[in-house]
Write a structure and sequence with these properties.
Keywords: Heme, Iron, Membrane, Metal-binding, Monooxygenase, Oxidoreductase, Transmembrane, Transmembrane helix. The protein contains twelve helices and nine strands. With 333 residues, the protein is mainly alpha-helical. The longest helix has 29 residues. The chain starts with a strand and ends with a strand. It binds protoporphyrin IX containing FE.
């Protein structure tokens, strides 16, 4: 590694880079319009969090306030953009011009095949369903992976020995230049351990919910139908009985033999949920995070700026309340 030059980065970028990734993966050639959906959903989320602070006022969301009117406008614009993208692609597919190597193509192709197989019995998903799926994917990816990357960089600043180990692995496995490929990324063991430990300590989605659909007994307690149960992932991930006395410490080595051996009481690691509704994007998210981190580690070394204040903030995602002010140094290999 050669000389380094000093840079300042006031704050990590928001989910914008991620907007690019999901837009390309979901909409391929229509990615610019897709990116607009991502921006609108970001604004929608911010407004929704604002509105949540007033939810104690009965019927608040129905009032014609400035925020509520903007939220309605955004929902209509998202719908309009997505309908346009879907219609354009359906026409191109009918004309045999479009490929199905993105999410939208896969959804539409499977929809068309399903309609063909059911011989017009109307069993395929509708355009509205396709639009609903696209919205869900955008929303589920909106902040999750960028929050994971943000906490990872903060923790690698706090634990520079792990930053060095992760960088050494990236340079050894992937080399100093070139686009990392899937095969190379899947050989990054230290980076994976680091990401798991960050997901454990700073779990982006802090809890998941399930509703009983019939009377049932769980852990010796009887529940009627319709009870909403919460699994507090963040608390499980910090449970000292399961993870040991050092449960609150950053120790990626606990994952050195994989997830099942990391805790006394497996399974106790659920950053992506569990069961039939487990996060469908978990492999995509980990790949995206590894790719992002590998590129950053190759190009920069980083440390916390004196302006950084450690304040995990549990609103929406678990995020750094005052941002992530870091100092980056460009590395010249
Ligand atoms: C660090 C990144 C991510 C985290 C921590 C995360 C976490 C989660 C969690 C906890 C759930 C609920 C699972 C349950 O109820 O058991 C979920 C659901 C979901 N996630 Fe993710 N997610 C991430 C990234 C992504 C990405 C990148 C995508 C899409 C590309 C995605 C798509 C989805 C979808 C579609 C669902 C709903 C699945 C269903 O209800 O069947 N997620 N995610």
């Amino acid at each position: 590694m050669g000389q380094a030059q000093e840079d300042h980065q006031p704050c990590l970028p928001s989910g914008e880079a991620q907007g690019d990734v999901i837009s390309r993966a979901a909409f391929g050639s229509s990615y610019l319009e897709g990116r607009r959906v991502f921006q609108l959903q970001g604004e929608q989320l911010e407004l929704f969090l604002l509105a949540m602070t007033k939810m104690h006022i009965p019927g608040y969301l129905l009032l014609p306030t400035k925020v509520n009117r903007r939220m309605k406008q955004i929902a209509a614009e998202i719908e309009r953009v997505l309908k346009g993208i879907v219609a354009k692609r359906e026409n191109a597919m009918r004309a045999g011009e479009a490929t199905s190597d993105d999410l939208l193509g896969v959804l539409l192709e499977s929809n068309m095949a399903h309609c063909r197989d059911s011989k017009g019995a109307g069993m395929g998903i509708t355009t509205d369903d396709v639009i609903g799926e696209c919205k869900l994917f955008y929303f589920a990816d909106a902040e999750t992976t960028s929050v994971l990357l943000t906490w990872t960089m903060i923790l690698l600043c706090m634990h520079p020995e792990w930053q060095d180990r992760a960088r050494e692995e990236v340079l050894r496995v992937l080399g100093p230049t070139g686009t990392p490929d899937h095969d190379g990324l899947s050989r990054l063991k230290v980076v994976t351990m680091v990401l798991y430990e960050v997901l454990r300590l700073y779990t982006p989605v802090m809890a998941i919910h399930r509703e009983t659909y019939k009377p049932m007994e769980l852990g010796g307690v009887r529940y009627p139908a319709g009870v909403v149960l919460m699994l507090p992932l963040l608390c499980v991930h910090h449970d000292k009985e399961v993870w040991g006395a050092d449960a609150d410490k950053f120790r990626p080595e606990r994952f050195s033999e994989g997830i099942s051996k990391a805790s006394a009481d497996a399974p106790a690691f659920f950053p992506f949920g569990w069961g039939p509704r487990v996060c469908i994007g978990q492999n995509f998210a980990l790949l995206e995070a590894k790719m992002g981190l590998a590129i950053i580690l190759r190009r920069f070394s980083f440390q916390l700026s004196p302006a950084y204040m450690h304040a995990p903030f549990p609103v929406g995602m678990l995020q750094p309340q005052h941002g992530a002010q870091l100092r980056l140094k460009t590395l010249i290999h």
